[in-house]
Amino acid sequence: MTTTFTEEERQKIAQKLAGLSYRKARKEIRKMDNKANLKFWRNGAKTGEIHTTYELPTLGLKISLVEIGQANPIEEGKRLKKEYFYTEARVEPLATPPAPQRRRD
Fold this sequence. Notes:
Layout: H1 7-18, H2 22-32, E1 37-43, E2 50-56, E3 61-74, E4 79-93
């Protein structure tokens, strides 16, 4: 059974996650719902932002952790090093029922 969250409650969750580091935010999401599914990891197709998205089927939420990627040249300038900076969390209601998952016992 999923629960429904108001816009205000979703904003509160987003602010809480935005105040954490990227790693701690990921841990917190998995604590919120033990059936949390990692939907996308660092997906950034043509957006300028990198998204890591989790589906929380028990809570009926979709949470996206947003990072900005920055490329810096390494010493001689022939190669680039990509760095990611965690900027915000976006919390949305889960639009469709989650896809069936394999059993985790």
